[in-house]
C-alpha cells in the first residue's frame, strides 16, 4: 500500500484507516525512534511496516512494547501492560470508556495508535491511586456494573482539573462524552459536585 | 433450631444502612477484572465474521486466505453457516478467527470469502397490514373476561362482540387509541463473551454471565464433558439486563478452539455484533378502544396488539394486558410478527415495560378526553378495584405511593389540563404518571459459611453481582447476624465451584442470597451460642450477638466474638444452607407496586423533549442497603429516559440491516439528558415485615408511559410511539 500521494495522509502524517488496514502505513518514524518529536504534529510521512519495538511512557514509567502500525494504544495497554482499566466499548471513542490522559489531555485509547503515543506522557485510571474523584464515586455509588466507571472517573478528573469549582450546571453540560448503560449519571453528578465543593 | 427472621428496624446495626458497595474502589480504580480484562498467558484473541445480510443462503464460505493471514492460528466455521444453510438475521456469526492479536484476527476475518444469495427480507414490525400481506403474522393468544355470561342459546363469539359493543355504547367516555414501543437492544457495555482455557480435559471459563452456577452445564453438554469438569467464573460483569444467561454458541466455540489449539481464547463480540445478535426487547404496537364512566373508571377494554421478538415471531405476551389498571370487562388479542432480526432475550421485566406503555397511555388519554386530572383518573380506577397487580395490598399501596410521588413532584401546583399549560415561547411543560408491578420471588440459593476459631467469617456462594450490590448485601446480612462490622466478613461469589445459586434475573437475587446467608448465619450462631452459654454459665436462649460480642440480653455479661470463636477448638465451624424457590419464609416475599411521575418540557418548534424532574416511589419489602437500592432505581429511570426519548433499533426495510448498531448512532441518554431525579423508598413497617424483595425490574417498567403521558399533557396531542423522537413529536403536532 503506497499511499504517499494520499493528501489526507500527507497533511496529518497519519491516516487511521491505512493503519487499521494493516501491512504497511505512514508514520512519523522520527517520533518512534527518538520519542522526542510530537507524533500528533505534522510530520513528513514515512513508511513503517510490521512490528516494531517502541517505548511508551505509561504512568510515569517507560515500557518497551511491540506495536504494528495498526495497533491501538488501547490494545497495548490492555494486552501488553495488563492495564485493563480503560475498556474496549466502542472503537470510535463514542462511549468514552477508554478515556486516558495523553500529556494531561483526556483522549480515548481506542482511537489512538500506539505509534502515535510514543514520546507522550500517558496516564491511565490506574495511576490515580484512589484519589478524591474515585473516593467520591464510591461514596455516592456512582457505579453499578462498573464497566464505564474507569472512563468516567478519568472524564470527571479531567473536567475538574480544568474547572475545579465547577457548578452543577457546568457538570451536567460538561460530561457528555461518556456512556453508562446502567444509569449512574445521577450519582456521578453528585460525586462530581462533592469533589468540586471539596476543592480536590 | 433457629427461627429465621429479621431483627426489628430499631435493633439493626448494618441492615437498612447506606453502606458503600464493597467493590466500589476496585471498580473506580480499574482493579476490578471483568471477563474482557482477564488475560491468560499465551492467549489468542478471537474475532468473528457476522452475516452481512438479514436473510440469505450461504453459497460459499472460504476461509483459506484467513488461515494464511499472518498471526492467525485457527479458524472455526459455525455449523449454521455451512454452505446451503439459510441465515435469518444480520450479524449472526458465521466464522471466527483466533489469532495472536486482535488486529491479526480482524485481518483474518477480512480475508474470509463469503458469497450468498439474498432472500426476501421483512423487518417492518409496526406495519401490521404489511406483515399480514407478507405472511409474517401468527396467533399470539388472547383472553376475554366479561361480567355477563352468554345465555345457553347464544353463540359465544357473537355474544362477546355484542357485549363489548354494548359496554362501549353505554360508556360515558370512549377513547380509541394507537400506541407503540419500538424494539431496543440490551447494549451491554461489556459485550457477551468469554476468556477460556481448556486444560487436561477440563475447562476454565471466565464468562460474562448473570448465571454463574447454571452455565457450567451449558458448556459441558456441548463439549461432551461433565459439569464438574467446568469452572465458570465471573467476578465482575459489565451489564447483562437479562441477556446473559447462557454460554451462547460463541462461548462454546471459544472452548472448542481452546481445546483444538491448546491455548486460552478470548472471544468477546464486537460492538455491532453485541447490538445485532446478543439481546433485544420485543416491540409492541396496539389498537385499543376503552370506555369509562363519568369518573374515568374503565368499564371496558378492547385491544389488539402486535410486535416482534425476532425471526420466530413472538412479541409482547397478552397475559399482562391491560397493564395494572384492568377493568372487569376486557378483550385482549395478540398477533405475532416474524421479522428478519435476531430473537429477543429477556429485558428487565419482560413484557411489562411494553404493556405499561401500551396501556397506561390509553388511561391518560381518557383523562385528556374528560378534561380531568390524570392523577384522579388513575386513583378512581384503583379505588374502583380496576387493578391487576402482584402486590397483595395493591390498591392501597399504589394510592399511598401516588400521594408521596405527587408531593415530591408537586403535582398539584404543576398540573394543568392536557394542552392547556402556559407556553414559554415555544416551550410547553406537562406531567405524566404510570404504575407498575412485579413479582421477584427469591431464587434458589445455597451457600457455605465458615466461622474460624480465629473469629474470621467467610461465605461462599455461586451467585453474581451485576452491579446491584449483591456482594455488599450478603456482607451486611452476615455482619448484622453476627454483630460484626462489614469489614469483618468475607464474601465469595462468582464461581460455579461454590454452592449453587440461581441466575440473576427477574429481581430474584437479593431474596435468594439473603435467604441462604441469613439462614446459614443464624444456624452458625446457634452453635456459637451453645458454646458461649456454657462458658458464661447461662442459657443459650438468653444470648445475642451485637457490637462484636456475644452477650446476655439486657446485661453486660458477655464474651468477645473472637474469644467465643476460640471455643470452636481447632476446626472451623462449617454450615451449609439452602433455600429453594417457593419455600415460604418471613425473610423474603414477592409482589411489588411502584409509581413514577415525570415533569417534562417540550419545544413545539424543534420537537425536542427535556425531562425536568422525574420521581420514583418504590416498595421492595425490607431494604437491606438503601444506597445500592436507590442506585438500581436511578439506573432504571435513566434507562427508561433513553427508551422513552432516544433509543431504538432502526432497520433498513430493504436489506434488513440494523443501521444504527454502533454507539455513535444508537442513541442513549447522556449525563446531561436526565434532569432532576428523585427516588423515594416506600418502606413502612407493613412493607418491612414482608421481608426482602428484589427491585431490578419494577422501576424499569413505568418510565416510558410516565414520560409519554407527560408529553401528551404538555402538548395536548398524543405522540403515539416511543421513543418520542423530535420527528415523531413534530409529526404528531402536524397531524393534530
Ligand atoms: S455502571 Fe454499568 S455501564 Fe456504567
Short description:
The complex is a heterodimer of chains A (200) and B (736). Chain A has 200 residues and is an alpha+beta fold. Chain A is 36% helix and 16% strand.
Q: CATH fold name of the largest domain in chain A, please?
A: Ubiquitin-like (UB roll)
Number of helices of chain B: 19
Largest interface: A-B, 60 and 58 residues
Oligomerization state: heterodimer
Compute the average pLDDT of chain A: 83
Report the end-to-end length of chain A measured between terminal Cα atoms. 50 Å
Q: Strand order across the biggest sheet of chain B?
A: 3-5-1-13-10-11-12
CATH topology of the largest domain in chain B: Aldehyde Oxidoreductase, domain 4
Q: Return the structural class of chain B.
A: alpha+beta
What gap, in angstroms, lies between the N and C termini of chain B?
Answer: 69 Å
CATH-wise, what's the superfamily of the largest domain in chain A?
Answer: Beta-grasp domain
| Low confidence ranges of chain A | 1-40
Total count of domains of chain A: 3
Helix content of chain B: 25-40%
What proportion of the residues of chain A form beta strands (DSSP E)?
15-25%
Low-confidence stretches of chain B: none
Nearest-integer average pLDDT of chain B: 97
The CATH architecture designation of the largest domain in chain A is: Roll
Query: What pattern of helices and strands is seen along the backbone of chain A?
Result: HHEHEEEHEEHEHHHH
Integer-rounded radius of gyration of chain B: 28 Å
Which short descriptors sum up this protein?
heterodimer, A: 200 residues, alpha+beta, Ubiquitin-like (UB roll), DNA polymerase, domain 1, two-stranded antiparallel ribbon, 36% helix, disordered N terminus, B: alpha+beta, Aldehyde Oxidoreductase, domain 3, Aldehyde Oxidoreductase, domain 4, 19 helices, 29 strands
Amino acid at each position: 500500500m503506497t499511499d504517499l500521494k494520499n493528501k489526507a495522509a500527507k497533511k496529518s502524517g497519519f491516516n487511521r484507516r491505512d493503519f487499521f488496514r494493516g501491512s504497511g502505513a505512514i508514520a512519523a518514524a522520527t517520533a518512534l525512534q527518538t520519542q522526542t518529536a510530537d507524533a500528533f504534529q505534522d510530520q513528513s510521512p514515512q513508511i513503517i511496516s510490521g512490528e516494531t519495538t517502541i517505548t511508551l511512557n505509561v504512568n510515569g514509567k517507560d515500557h518497551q512494547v511491540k506495536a504494528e502500525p495498526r495497533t491501538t494504544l488501547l490494545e497495548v495497554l490492555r494486552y501488553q501492560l495488563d492495564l485493563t482499566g480503560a475498556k474496549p466499548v466502542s472503537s470510535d471513542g463514542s462511549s468514552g470508556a477508554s478515556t486516558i490522559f495523553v500529556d494531561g489531555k483526556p483522549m480515548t485509547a481506542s482511537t489512538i495508535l500506539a505509534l502515535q503515543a510514543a514520546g507522550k506522557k500517558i496516564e491511565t485510571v490506574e495511576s490515580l491511586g484512589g484519589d478524591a474523584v474515585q473516593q467520591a464515586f464510591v461514596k455516592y455509588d456512582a457505579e453499578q456494573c462498573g464497566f464505564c466507571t474507569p472512563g468516567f472517573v478519568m472524564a470527571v478528573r479531567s473536567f475538574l482539573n480544568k474547572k475545579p469549582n465547577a457548578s452543577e450546571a457546568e457538570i451536567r453540560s460538561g460530561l457528555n462524552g461518556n456512556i453508562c448503560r446502567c444509569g449512574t449519571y445521577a450519582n456521578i453528578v453528585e460525586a462530581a459536585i462533592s469533589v468540586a465543593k471539596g476543592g480536590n | 433450631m433457629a427461627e429465621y427472621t429479621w431483627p426489628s428496624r430499631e435493633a439493626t446495626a448494618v441492615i437498612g444502612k447506606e453502606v458503600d458497595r464493597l467493590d466500589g474502589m476496585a471498580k473506580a480504580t480499574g482493579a476490578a477484572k471483568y471477563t474482557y480484562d482477564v488475560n491468560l498467558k499465551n492467549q489468542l484473541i478471537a474475532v468473528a465474521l457476522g452475516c452481512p445480510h438479514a436473510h440469505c443462503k450461504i453459497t460459499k464460505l472460504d476461509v483459506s486466505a484467513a488461515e494464511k493471514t499472518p498471526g492467525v492460528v485457527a479458524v472455526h466455521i459455525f455449523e449454521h453457516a455451512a454452505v446451503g444453510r439459510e441465515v435469518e438475521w444480520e450479524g449472526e456469526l458465521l466464522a471466527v478467527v483466533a489469532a495472536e492479536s486482535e488486529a491479526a484476527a480482524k485481518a483474518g476475518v477480512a480475508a474470509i470469502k463469503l458469497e450468498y444469495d439474498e432472500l426476501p427480507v421483512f423487518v417492518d414490525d409496526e406495519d401490521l397490514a404489511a406483515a399480514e400481506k407478507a405472511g409474517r403474522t401468527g396467533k399470539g393468544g388472547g383472553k376475554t373476561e366479561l361480567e355477563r355470561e352468554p345465555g345457553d342459546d347464544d353463540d359465544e363469539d357473537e355474544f362477546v362482540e355484542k357485549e363489548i359493543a354494548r359496554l362501549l355504547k353505554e360508556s360515558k367516555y370512549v377513547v380509541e387509541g394507537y400506541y407503540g414501543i419500538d424494539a431496543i437492544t440490551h447494549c451491554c457495555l461489556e459485550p457477551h463473551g468469554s476468556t477460556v482455557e481448556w486444560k487436561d480435559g477440563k475447562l476454565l471459563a471466565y464468562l460474562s454471565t448473570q448465571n454463574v452456577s447454571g452455565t457450567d452445564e451449558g458448556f459441558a453438554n456441548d463439549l461432551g464433558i461433565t459439569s464438574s469438569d467446568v469452572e465458570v467464573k465471573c467476578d465482575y460483569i459489565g451489564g447483562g439486563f437479562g441477556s446473559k444467561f447462557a454460554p451462547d454458541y460463541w462461548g462454546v466455540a471459544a472452548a472448542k478452539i481452546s481445546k483444538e489449539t491448546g491455548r486460552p481464547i478470548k472471544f468477546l463480540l464486537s460492538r455491532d455484533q453485541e447490538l445485532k445478535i446478543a439481546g433485544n426487547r420485543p416491540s409492541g404496537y396496539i389498537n385499543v378502544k376503552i370506555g369509562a364512566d363519568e369518573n374515568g373508571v374503565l368499564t371496558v377494554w378492547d385491544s389488539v396488539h402486535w410486535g416482534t421478538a425476532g425471526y420466530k415471531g413472538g412479541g409482547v405476551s397478552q397475559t399482562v394486558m391491560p397493564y395494572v389498571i384492568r377493568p372487569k370487562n376486557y378483550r385482549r388479542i395478540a398477533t405475532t410478527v416474524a421479522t428478519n432480526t435476531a430473537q429477543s432475550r429477556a429485558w428487565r421485566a419482560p413484557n411489562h415495560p411494553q404493556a405499561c406503555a401500551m396501556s397506561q397511555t390509553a388511561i391518560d388519554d381518557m383523562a385528556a378526553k374528560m378534561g380531568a386530572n390524570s392523577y384522579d383518573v388513575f386513583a378512581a380506577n384503583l379505588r374502583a378495584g380496576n387493578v391487576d397487580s402482584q402486590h397483595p395490598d395493591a390498591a392501597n399501596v399504589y394510592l399511598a405511593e401516588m400521594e408521596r410521588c405527587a408531593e415530591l413532584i408537586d403535582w398539584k401546583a404543576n398540573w394543568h389540563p392536557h394542552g392547556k399549560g402556559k407556553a414559554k415561547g415555544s416551550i410547553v411543560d406537562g406531567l405524566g404518571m404510570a404504575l407498575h408491578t412485579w413479582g421477584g420471588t427469591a431464587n434458589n440459593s445455597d451457600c457455605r459459611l465458615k466461622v474460624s476459631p480465629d473469629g474470621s467469617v467467610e461465605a461462599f456462594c455461586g451467585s453474581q453481582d451485576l452491579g446491584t450490590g449483591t456482594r455488599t448485601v450478603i456482607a451486611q446480612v452476615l455482619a448484622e447476624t453476627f454483630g460484626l462490622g462489614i469489614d469483618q466478613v468475607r464474601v465469595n461469589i462468582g464461581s460455579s465451584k461454590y454452592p449453587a445459586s440461581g441466575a440473576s434475573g427477574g429481581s430474584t437475587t437479593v431474596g435468594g442470597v439473603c435467604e441462604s446467608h441469613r439462614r446459614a448465619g443464624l444456624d452458625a450462631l446457634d452453635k456459637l451460642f451453645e458454646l458461649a452459654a456454657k462458658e458464661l454459665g447461662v442459657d443459650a436462649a438468653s444470648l445475642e450477638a451485637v457490637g462484636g460480642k456475644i452477650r446476655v440480653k439486657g446485661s453486660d455479661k458477655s464474651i468477645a466474638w473472637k474469644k467465643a470463636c476460640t471455643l470452636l477448638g481447632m476446626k472451623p465451624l462449617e454450615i451449609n444452607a439452602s433455600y429453594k424457590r417457593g419455600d415460604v419464609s418471613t425473610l423474603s416475599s414477592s409482589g411489588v407496586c411502584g409509581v413514577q411521575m415525570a415533569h417534562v418540557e417540550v419545544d413545539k418548534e424543534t420537537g425536542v423533549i427535556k425531562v425536568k424532574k422525574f420521581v420514583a416511589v418504590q416498595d421492595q419489602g425490607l431494604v437491606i442497603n438503601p444506597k445500592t437500592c436507590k442506585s438500581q432505581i436511578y439506573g432504571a429511570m435513566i434507562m427508561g429516559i433513553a427508551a422513552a426519548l432516544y433509543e431504538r433499533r432502526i432497520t433498513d426495510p430493504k436489506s434488513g440491516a440494523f443501521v444504527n448498531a454502533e454507539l455513535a448512532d444508537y442513541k442513549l441518554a447522556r449525563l446531561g439528558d436526565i434532569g432532576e431525579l428523585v427516588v423515594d423508598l416506600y418502606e413502612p413497617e407493613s412493607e418491612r415485615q414482608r421481608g426482602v424483595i428484589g427491585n431490578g425490574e419494577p422501576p424499569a417498567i413505568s418510565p416510558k408511559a410516565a414520560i409519554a403521558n407527560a408529553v401528551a399533557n404538555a402538548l395536548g396531542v398524543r405522540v403515539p410511539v416511543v421513543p418520542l423522537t423530535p420527528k415523531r413529536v413534530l409529526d404528531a403536532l402536524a397531524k393534530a
